[in-house]
Amino acid sequence: MRAFARLMSDRGAEVRMDGDSAVRTLLVDDSEAFLDVASDVVGATPGFISIGAVSDPAKALELLLSRRPELAVIDVHMPRMDGIELTRRFKALRPATTVALISADAPDQLPPAARTCGADVVFDKREFGPRRLRDIAGSMRPPGGG
After folding, report:
1. Would you say residue 146 lies in a domain?
2. pTM
């Protein structure tokens, strides 16, 4: 079932339907293992829906425009385009999307640009889970803000 959910998620299909109040969440990370786990966490967290889990930043930009996520969880360290640059592009294209920049490195070990690129929150990847998702959702702007 997980493989099917990831396949559908990679294609941009919503893998969980909770109604209009669910936070539309896009996951971007070059680690397939993390995407599998994070997809499961999003799918199991009430009030959240996955609209994609992708390892390619170009695909993430496509999904940003076509699926209009309310929350994007983006890894800092990725090949081709790092999460800092991807966050800048997300915010330029759709400022209303809340961006959570994550890394296996502690936030204070990240380049200064991680704190100035427009990310709404920066945190350690090991903290990713339902509680962190709910905390982020509690601080998000209301839908329709852009």
Report:
1. no
2. 0.84
